[in-house]
Every structure is written in structure tokens, then in C-alpha cells.
Amino acid sequence: MARRRRYWTSAIIPSNSMALVAAAAPSHTSVVFLLLHIYLLLFSPAAAITFHKPKFDPTDASILCSGGASASSGTIKLTNAHYGIEVSRVVYGDDIPLWSSATGKLSDFATRFSFSIDAGSGYPSGVAFFLAPVGFQAPENSAGGYMGLYNYTDRVHPRARKQVVHVEFDYFVNPSWDPPFRHVGMNINSLASKVVAPWNSGPRPGGSVMVDINYTVSTHNLTVFWVYENGRNSSLWYVIDLKEVLPERVMVGFSATSNDYSGEQELLSWDFHSNLEMRNTGRERNFRNTKMIGLVAIAAIAIAAFVFLQMRRKRGGVNKGMNLLSMTDEFSRGAGPRKFSYTDLVSATNNFSLDRKLGEGGFGAVYRGCLSDSGMPVAVKRISRGSRQGIKEYTTEVMIISRLRHRNLVQLIGWCHEKGELLLVYQFMSNGSLDSHLFGENSSLPWPERYNIALGLASSLLYLHEEWEQCVVHRDIKAANVMLDSGFNVKLGDFGLARLVDHELGPQTTRLAGTIGYMSPEYISTGRASKESDVYSFGVVCLEIATGRRVVDYIEDGLEMCLVEWVWELYGNGNHSVTIDKRLVNFDEREAECLIVVGLWCAHPDSCQRASIRQAIQVLNFESPFPRLPEKRPFPVFDKAASCESSDEPLLSYSTTDCDSI
Length: 662
Known about the structure:
Blueprint: E1 3-7, H1 15-23, H2 28-42, E2 46-53, E3 63-66, E4 70-72, E5 75-79, E6 86-92, E7 96-97, E8 109-118, E9 126-133, H3 152-156, E10 165-170, E11 183-188, E12 195-198, E13 208-216, E14 221-228, E15 233-239, E16 249-258, E17 264-274, H4 281-286, H5 288-314, H6 324-332, E18 338-339, H7 342-348, E19 357-360, E20 364-370, E21 377-383, H8 388-401, E22 412-418, E23 421-427, H9 434-438, H10 447-467, E24 471-473, E25 482-484, E26 490-492, E27 499-501, E28 508-509, H11 521-526, E29 528-529, H12 531-547, E30 552-556, E31 559-562, H13 563-572, H14 589-602, H15 613-620, H16 657-660
Parallel strand pairs: 18-22
Antiparallel strand pairs: 1-2, 2-17, 3-6, 4-5, 5-17, 6-16, 7-16, 8-13, 8-17, 9-10, 9-16, 10-11, 11-12, 13-14, 14-15, 19-20, 20-21, 21-23, 22-23, 24-27, 25-26, 28-29, 30-31
Helix pairs in contact: 2-5, 10-12, 10-15, 12-14, 14-15
């Protein structure tokens, strides 16, 4: 049974408060107070939509079937095993508020559904979950590969404002627009997918697929996770502002088509939740004029507040942009990294010549240099000019890493911001980065060095997470950021994305940042960076160290495959030894198994089931027994709660049998 929750916001302004606002001299607080109460007057009530359909009742009026779709025996037949061409649709009966033009707010939403495809000897097109304008009808001649959402005209003359977003489970390959394999794709106003992933493990005849699709406003991230009955799972994500693509209210549902003999496709269950606070349409029509007057008033007050704050800044207020002078003052306080002149660093790097270039990352390039006054070899990072994010990375790196002292962290020697340049000076690492040794064609690290590198990296994380005065969440742990000195000792570097968190507080919601493959499922979905998301990245690096393979690699039959998924599958079959790097002639089998187990434990899809970094170290040192891991990789489980201990109600949280068996 669908239920619509309503949350009412108070629109009462105490008379004494209004008197204070009117009588007091203009202040930032009073402006904010007045804006807040005008907002409360204009925007109430609020609503959230949630429904739960573990099975389907033919008499349920909230689920609308059309075309070849029909409810029977608790499921909905999308297509039947017969000859014929038709479009089948299942949609929720009420429209869904997605965003509000009045507030500019966009809704999070989460949906979970399960379906089955029994191809038999046929060629089913697949199933698509879609969001479209209310009343959207299937175009003419949209059966077959058009998924009931597009037709030939749309393909030849695409319309920029068609306003359809869909996630497709495409069983039949159409060479004109599909990749050359069965796939899961995310599509925006087009038959051609923006991102795709191979649909490698199609369900067995009669088997089911469980799917989670989530949209997170804070990161604008649309994610899809899917898992089969055999436990194998995959994921896909795409960053998009749905406000730019879809109307305020949408219809949601499923589309499937038959094309000659198509086999059977069934929808087995469907849950949905959205949380947009939005006024109902009746009040919106009745108070449209009032709203316009209110918006004008808000604009006037906002302008007044802006002028007031600008005057305050001119009178000596703090400039939040932190100009170069204030940066210099801040960086120069106390002992630590010193200020270099631009001339010194130009001389040290031979004017940043190409033959001194060690590598290049997202925010700039790194050059080998030699300080003229001491002869010390250094690495100089040159932040890309004009990069706003680069400025933030620069200040973050100096402010955080300059205060850290640990044998397994790269030492920041100095900094420079002159002549439009942002430069960071580090101790030089003669053996470069870990990835060059793991994945280089002509290099292979011996096993003892590999195991010590894993221990050293774990030690650096223990210091960051638990031993320093504040918790430091690194957010970009990967093989390329693990540096090695002349003795192959670990030095973790690149703190440009790091965040400081009080030990008592939970994870912070941030803009999504990091490297694909190393980011945990819950971080991708919610944008909450935490110690647990760092531990996930550490687990992936452990698996890279043991296997000598990249996080996404060509592993089976020339297909790209997730390293964690591949290792977990072989581990569950008792064949973890097959995953060890073939270039290793001699290695300690007990340590190899330990590194694999710790890597999988830390890369567990459920953040609450992961090891802490301290627990991981204890197992790596054989001070604690191996954890018991499920044979099949569990389905990702995450929510909006700040931490595993939080009692806040999750947006939508599920677990599988595999998760419960841990």
C-alpha cells in the first residue's frame, strides 16, 4: 500500500520577533531571520512518497499496466513467450515530485526492484526503468530495440527536450546504437547509453536479478547496483543534474518490448522512496500571486543583505577567499615547511623542463629538482594555472600535511605562491610510486617488499584515522599515491583531497572526489567520506599488491572486470591462490592468503562489515585470526546515516542473505 508522508513547517512569526526585526539596526542575523520566516510562509506543506510492492495484486489501482503487461500470481508479466510485436508498460499511478522551481530543491530517490528474463530460444529486448514527463506515451513503432521509449525518428532526429532518463538491462544487441555486448546502460534522452557495463552474468532461465537505483542530490550521482541469484554483482554510476533534464513532476515505471519471439520477462517486486519537500498543487495554484510577491520581497531583502555584508567586508571583515597575503601569513606560522621563492624553484627544476617531469595528475604535474642551497633532491608539484579546485588542493595540502609527522607519510618541505603559480615541494622518492612497480611491463616487486608495503600503508592510515589529534580522511588512497623511498618504504602522499574530522563526529558529506575503482559504494552513492571509505580504498590496494592487476582489468575472455569481484569469486571457490601475481616466483603462501583476505575484508561492500585499519593490521601481523567472509561477495548496503552506529532512519537500506550470514 502506497503511503504519502506529509511534514508541516510552521508559518507562525512571533509578534515580538517581528518587532525586534523592525526596531533593531540592520544586522546579518536579522536579515537571515526575516528570510527564514518568509521562506516558511511560502513553502509548506511537504511530502515524501514511499511504496513497497513485494508482490503485485491485480486489484492494486496504484500500479498501472498497459500493452502486454498484466499482474498474475504475485508478479507482472512484461512480455510472454509468443510471437508478436508490442510495448509493455508498468508505471506508478501517481506522479512523483522530482524538483521544485519554487525552492530549486531536487529530490533524492531510491528504488529497488527484481525481475527475471527467461530467454528460452527467443531474443528478448530487455527491461528499462524510466523517468519521464507525466502522461508520456510510448511513441509509435517503438517496439523491439527501441525499448518502448524511442523510435526511428528519435534516433535520426534526436530531440534535445525529450526528457527521458532510463536505466536499461539490454539483452539484445542493436549494432546501430548498442555496444557489441549485452549490457547495463544509463541513457539520457537517447538510445545510446552515456555509460555502460557488460551484462556478463545473465540470469539463468527463470532466475532473477535484484537492482538498486539511487539518486543523491549532494553529489548529483545516479547509481545502479545489480546482483544475481548466484551472488555475482556489479555497479555503474553517472553524474547528472536531473533538474536540467526532467520536469518537476515525473512518472516512473518500467518498459519492455517484444520483437517476434521474445521469451518471458517478469517484474517480481518494486520498492520506491523519494523525499522532496514540495507544496501540493492546490495551494500552489491558489497562492501563485502571493508567491511571486514573496519572491520579489526575498530578492529585495537578499540584495540589501548582500550590500550590507559587502560594506562590512570593506570595513575590515575577513575575506573568505583567503588571498595570497593571508595564505602566506597562515602558512608561515610556527615551524614546518618553509616558503620558497619562485626563482629558487625555477632554478631547481631547470625551468620545469620536460626531462625533469616525473608525472602528471588531476591538479598538475610533478618535477624532479635539486635545491641549490643544500643540494637536496626534491619533487616539485606545479598546480595547474587557473584551477579553482587546484587552489583548494594547494591550501588543504599545506594546512594538513605540514602538521602531520609519521614515518610513512611524504614530508612536505616547502611551498610557494608567486607570479600566478602554486608550487609544493616534497622530499624526493627515488623509487617512485607503487603503481609503476606493480603494473610496469619490466618490473616486478619481490614478495617481502610487497607485504611490507601493505603494512606500511596500513600504519600510515592508523596514524591518520586514530593516532593524530584529529581524524584525517585521505579520500584518494590508490597505488599511484603510495610513494616508495630508496629502501621501498611506504610514504603516502597527495593530501589535496583530505578532510579533517573530529574523532567524535561521523562522516562528512562532500563533493564526490577520488579515483574510480577505489571509491566505496556508499561514498559514491551518498557523498559521505569516512574512515570506512578510506579502508575500502586500502583493501583495493592490498588486492592490487597481491595480484599485480589494476582495479579494473581485462581478466576473463578479454572483458573488463572489477578486481574485487574477480578475487572474491575465486576466494569463494577456494581458489584464491590463482589470483596471486604470476610474475612472483617465490612468495609466502600464508602471507599471500592473509593479504587477499584482509583486502576483501576491507573492500566489503557494506561499510559496517569492514575491518577498521587497526583490525586489519592485527590480522596482517598474525596477531588475530582471519575473519570469516561470505563465499559470495555481498550486495552493497548503504544508507544516509552518518555512521554504522547512527540511529537515523536510512533513505532505503537492504541486505541480502550473504550479508546476514557474516
